From TrEMBL:
Its main location: membrane. The chain crosses the membrane at residues 21-42, 54-73, 85-116, 122-141, 148-169, 175-197, 228-251, 263-287, 299-320, 394-415. Gene3D superfamilies: Jelly Rolls. SMART domains: cNMP. It is a multi-pass membrane protein. The keyword Ion transport applies. This is Cyclic nucleotide-binding domain-containing protein. Keywords: Ion channel, Ion transport, Ligand-gated ion channel, Membrane, Transmembrane, Transmembrane helix, Transport. Residues 779-894 form the Cyclic nucleotide-binding domain. PROSITE patterns: CNMP_BINDING_2, CNMP_BINDING_3. It is found in: Membrane. It comes from the Bacteria.
């Protein structure tokens, strides 16, 4: 490691990326040395004789040469693997550097100087296409934003070094040594790129994307029906023209001020060295921070906005009659500012814009912009400068007129580019919906019928109340739901009453589902009120039902406040995780709680932003493909407020809890409470946390005297997990914390009776042990304990004597069995198929259908088991989708093994 982990963190480099970053940095450094040395050699010759005419001629010639080289590169890009193309390009650059060395050695004419300048530009283009082509497929869009500024800073110290050499070396005879050095640098870059290719998969793989609507205009067809590529290319043309014009004005004015060639090169070299050093410092130290704070849109507009102001300033200086020295300082500042902004701000962001495209499109678009439209801008500038140089009366001010117009055009196209960038991110994630469709989504409305009479309204309300009460009855639920939907608005008051605090969770869940299907403004208001309740299960139910509604601007403050509330809760849990192992019992429980918070935040965002965008982003961050994850995060980064994004990214990231806590601390300051996390969990209880999380905190926390009142409700809790957790903990206090135990007896005189009842019930498997049994069953092995705790209430303990037939082949099955003690044999007639023991399960297909049993189950010894009935289990699966997903996963694995076994037996 070249630098410490602390420095990597400051630079935004993750440990697994360090080697890659260093390879690209060194690669760019070597390319920068070679390129700047060729640049110095070309400018030394061109500034010797009549630069006013020779520089525009060199620009035009170089533009034509670059466009031809870009066309050749495009051909091979389509017909050669990128790994091979990168190496071949550098070989071509090495050969071209040798040709330029020969020209410097034998050619002293203006034509030779123009040829050298054209050769420099072609080398610059080829190295640029090769470097960014490789990096564009190695890094995803998120890495690009973090790292492009850093790896592209590699050429800055090299160019500063070359500019320093320009100060020292200005004799024509010494230039050959510069080109020999450039030749060696390109050769070393070739070795570095080969090392990069050996350690990375550099391949532009096509990916499945939704087909774009075919464009009708010639412009759209030229750019592959891609508005993003079109706007980028047009803005690149304008910026290249202005950059060329500013460079020309700077060089010519320096030549006019310092007639001695040595002084000219010293001044130019000094400005170049300062420019590249400033650009390097900004790229390495500030580029990522600035991008994080300003965002892509502002960073894109920074270059044209600042340069446009600088160009307009020339008019003021000319009107004020500024002297030659003042104008020289102005040209120096304009050139330095443009170069620093272009290299340190614009170029890294410009390259990020291509990342949402599919890899082949990405490379083609970059080649098109750099290999055709950027040279086109330089060629246009050369033509305009050459024409102006022929008329001395307008030569001083005309370039600033057309440069101002070009930069205003760049500002216009870049303002449109950001919208196209977001649309391309959406296109990369979704194959069904477009951004335009999402932006047209409106809240569904129902036609308003004539108002019912008071008597009819009262009758409907009474009926709706009766039907709402029937929603918890499994047999009558379907008919009650259908009738409530038919009642429409008349059913809303009864449903809203069922959603208020104090009602049962089952009733609230069913009522919320019906309210969501009504799609009425009144039902939506009831669901929004439910979402504001602190109980996480109720909030999740409300947000699930609200998915059928489009965002309503009037409710935005409510959901914004809930997002902030969820993020602050996440901060509290993350701070607690810093002192815990993620694999400990409480650590696992908190990990589940954080995952639930993440899901709730995404659901809340659907009520604030185009829902399909958020849904696509949520699916994308959970996707296995790194690039899809990066595109999803980029959508969120450009859609939601920056602090929300950083907090959500910290939740999604796999970084240590300490790093996440630091992020939350920077965003929200210290947590509102400093109470120990287990005590905080017990204090908040089921209004904030899952019952398993609270039970674990109860078992692990030793309360103080002041915290005992928070424990009292749990001793009489109807939830077996919570009561067991509290009683188990107080049992330990009886032997280790006498003072606290005595105070508990004083506050709750019935405590001894509760402890005796707890011991008497020990013959039955406690709720905590049942969760452990489920956890060690293959069917639920990947299911968090927080989810398994919801299955415990429906586990019915059953016993069978040896030889008892549990079910027979052909019986209608509606139950799954999990063996706790004993052995169960599965028979097909007299043939024993398999034997199940502790932790095994059988009859699982009955949970998904009610078809006849495919075999007979017989207790081969005394059996103690737990039965899960289909109806009860359906209710759990409806509430906890993780349960259903794990059952399907295990059944698929069994089916796959069975197919493999059948195949091997053939």
């Amino acid at each position: 490691m070249f630098i410490s982990t602390t420095w990597y963190r400051l630079l935004g480099v993750r440990p697994e990326e360090a080697r890659t970053v260093w390879l690209f940095f060194l690669h760019n450094f070597l390319l920068g040395i070679g390129t700047i040395l060729v640049y110095v050699a070309a400018n030394v010759i061109l500034l010797e004789n009549n630069p006013e005419r020779n520089l525009p001629l060199a620009y035009g010639t170089a533009a034509l040469a670059m466009m031809a080289a870009g066309r050749v590169y495009t051909h091979f890009e389509h017909h050669m693997l990128l790994q091979k193309l990168a190496g071949r390009v550098l070989l071509a650059v090495v050969a071209l550097a040798g040709v330029l060395g020969v020209l410097v050695l034998v050619g002293h004419s203006v034509a030779a100087a123009v040829a050298i300048m054209a050769g420099y530009r072609v080398i610059y283009l080829l190295t640029n296409l090769e470097f960014w082509g490789v990096s564009a497929v190695v890094f995803d869009v998120r890495q690009s934003k973090r790292l492009f500024g850093l790896i592209s800073a590699g050429d800055m110290p090299a160019k500063a070094l070359g500019a320093g050499l320009a100060i020292i070396i200005h004799a024509h005879t010494d230039l050959l040594y510069l080109l020999l050095t450039a030749f060696a640098a390109y050769g070393a870059a070739l070795l570095v790129v080969r090392a990069t290719l050996r350690s990375h998969t550099v391949e532009a793989r096509p990916v499945g994307r939704r087909q774009r609507v075919a464009g009708t205009s010639v412009w759209q067809r030229w750019f592959g029906n891609n508005q993003l590529v079109l706007s980028i290319c047009l803005s690149m043309t304008a910026i290249a023209a202005v950059t060329t014009g500013v460079e020309y004005s700077f060089f010519v004015n320096v030549k006019h001020k310092f007639h001695d060639q040595a002084l000219v090169m010293q001044y130019v070299g000094g400005v170049l060295a300062l420019t590249y050093l400033l650009a390097m410092l900004f790229k390495v130290g500030l580029a990522q921070v600035t991008l994080d704070r300003l965002g892509i849109r502002r960073m894109l507009l920074a270059l044209p906005g600042v340069v446009l102001v600088g160009l307009l300033l020339f008019g003021g200086l000319s009107w004020a009659g500024a002297g030659e020295s003042t104008l020289l300082i102005y040209f120096c500042g304009l050139y330095l500012g443009l170069e620093v902004l272009r290299r340190a701000v614009f170029d890294p962001v410009f390259l990020v814009l291509f990342q949402p495209l599919a890899p082949p499109e990405r490379l083609q678009a970059h080649t098109l912009a750099k290999g055709y439209y950027e040279p086109l801008g330089m060629g246009l500038a050369g033509l305009l400068l050459y024409a102006a140089a022929s008329h001395e009366a307008i030569a001083n001010w005309l370039p600033f007129v057309w440069m101002t117009l070009f930069m205003a055009g760049a500002l216009f196209f870049l303002a449109r580019t950001y919208g196209h960038y977001l649309a391309e991110l959406q296109h990369a994630l979704s194959q069904r919906f477009s951004l335009a469709d999402e932006l047209r989504t409106e809240l569904p409305t129902e036609p308003t019928d004539a108002a019912p009479t008071p008597a009819a309204a009262a009758t409907d309300l009474a009926e709706a109340q009766q039907l709402t009460a029937l929603l918890t009855d499994k047999k009558q639920r379907p008919a009650a739901t259908a009738r409530l939907l038919n009642l429409g608005p008349a059913a809303v008051p009864a449903l809203a009453a069922a959603l208020r605090p104090g009602t049962s969770e089952a009733l609230a869940r069913r009522a919320a589902s019906v309210a969501g299907q009504l799609r009425l403004p009144e039902s939506r208001r009831a669901l929004v009120a439910l979402a504001q309740q602190p109980h996480p299960a109720r909030r999740e139910v409300a947000l699930r039902a609200l998915r059928g509604f489009a965002p309503v601007a009037a409710d935005a403050p409510v959901f914004q406040g809930l997002v902030e509330e969820e993020l602050r809760l996440a901060q509290r849990l993350v701070n607690g995780l810093v002192h815990l192992s993620a694999t400990s019992e409480l650590g696992r429980a908190l990990g589940y709680e954080l995952a639930r918070i993440e899901q709730r935040i995404f659901s809340l965002l659907q009520q604030l932003y185009p829902p399909q965008l958020i849904v696509d982003a949520q699916r994308g961050v959970a996707h296995a493909a790194r690039e899809r994850q990066a595109n999803a995060l980029e959508i969120l980064d450009n859609l939601i407020p920056r602090p929300w994004y950083q907090g959500l990214q910290a939740l999604l990231d796999l970084s240590p809890a300490a790093d996440k806590a630091q992020v939350f601390g920077q965003l929200f300051g210290p947590p509102a409470t400093t109470v120990a996390l287990p005590a905080y969990i017990i204090q908040q209880g089921e209004t904030t946390f899952n019952d398993w999380t609270v039970a674990v905190a109860l078992r692990q926390h030793v309360p103080t005297l002041g915290q005992l009142p928070d424990w009292l409700p749990y001793f009489n809790s109807p939830n077996a997990l919570l009561q067991e957790g509290a009683l188990t903990a107080i049992n330990h206090l009886a032997t280790s914390q006498h003072i606290i135990y005595d105070e508990a007896l004083r506050l709750l005189p019935a405590l001894p009776h509760l402890l005796m009842s707890h011991h008497a019930a020990a013959a039955h498997l406690p709720a905590q042990a049942r969760v452990g049994l489920l956890r060690h069953t293959a069917l639920f092995a990947e299911t968090p304990e927080n989810v398994l705790s919801s299955i415990v209430p429906i586990m019915q303990e059953v016993t069978f004597p040896a030889g008892h037939q549990i079910f027979a082949k052909g019986d209608l099955g509606a139950s799954l069995y999990i063996v706790y003690e004993g052995e169960v044999g599965i028979f097909n007639g007299p043939q024993l198929l398999t034997t199940f023991r502790q932790g095994d399960f059988f009859g699982e297909l009955a949970l998904l259908d009610a078809e006849p049993r495919s075999a007979t189950a017989v207790a081969q010894s005394a059996v103690r088991a737990f039965r899960l009935d289909q109806d009860d289990f359906y209710d759990v699966m409806e509430e906890r989708g993780e349960v259903l997903r794990n059952i399907l996963r295990v059944l698929c694995q069994r089916l796959r093994r069975q197919n493999e076994s059948n195949g091997s037996n053939k």
